What we know:
12 helices; globular
Amino acid sequence: MRVPSVERRPSFADEVQLRRALDHLSGVDAVGVTHRVAKLATRSLKTSTKSRAIDLALSMIDLTTLEGSDTPGRVASLCAKARRPDPEDPTTPAAAAVCVYPDLVADARRHLEGSSVAVASVATAFPSGRAPLSVKLADVGAAVEAGADEIDMVIDRGAFLSGRLGQVFDEIEAVKAECRGAHLKVILETGELVTLDNVKRASWLAMWAGADFIKTSTGKVSVNATPTVGLVMLEAVRDFAEETGSLVGVKMAGGIRTTKDALRYLVLINETVGSRWLSPDLFRFGASSLMNDLLMQRTKQRLGAYVRPERFSGD
C-alpha cells in the first residue's frame, strides 16, 4: 500500500482548537446527497467496462473473517482464497488483504508470505472501542508484532457523541504511533453516528489525527455501509486532499454482497473523487460474501453462462 503524505496535516494545541476546526466545516445537505446517490445509481456500464470493473473490485476486497469461532484452519482457507480466488483461472486478481483478529495474524502472515495480499487486523477493543487506552495500544502492538501490515481500529463512539472529541483524536494519534509503519484504517461505525454531519465531522477528525483510511463500519451493527454515507466520506477525503495535499483512502464495510452493489460504489468513486481513488491503495471493500458474487459475474462475462457455485470456495 502506498504511504500517504502527512506533511501538511494540521496540529491542534488543545481540544478547543480542534472543536473550532470541526465547527468550521459546512453542514451536509442530506437531501442533495440522497438525490446524487440515487442519480448515480442509474448509471450503467458497457460490457468491456464492466469486466474491468469486476476485476478492480476483486482487487479491492479485504477478505474478512471476524467471528468468535474463527480457527487457524479457517484462516488458512481464507488466505488460499485471497491469493487465488478462482483456482481454475490464474488471471483472476488476488484480494487486497485478509482481515482477522490479532491472535490469528501470525497464521495469516504465514499463509500469505510471498504474495501480494496484505495482512490486516482489527484492534482497539473491536467492535465496541470501549477499553482503556493502554489495552487498546496493547491490542495494536500485539497485531503489529505478529506481522500485521494494516490495523483497523474503531473509535469510541460514546466519546465522540458525548463531545469528548479530544479523547477520540488523542486515541487515534496514539494508535497511529503504535502502528509503527503499519497502515491505519479508522472505523467510524457510521451506523451509530446518527447524522451525516457527524459522519463528516468524524471523518475529518480521523484524518487530522493521522488515519491512512477512514472506514464505515465494523459489520457488527444493524446499519453498516450505505452509498449515502459513502458519498459523504468520499467528499471528505476529496476536500481533505485539496486542503492538505494528503491522500486518504476509504473503506466500505458491512452489507456489500453483490456485484451490482460494488459497481455502484465504483461509479460513486469515479464521479466524486476521480480515478486516482480507483485503486486498492485508496479504496477497499470489507467483505466476505461479495467475492463469490463477483467471481460468478466474472465467469458469466467471460463464458457467457454461469458456472456452478461449487467452483468457488464457500469461505
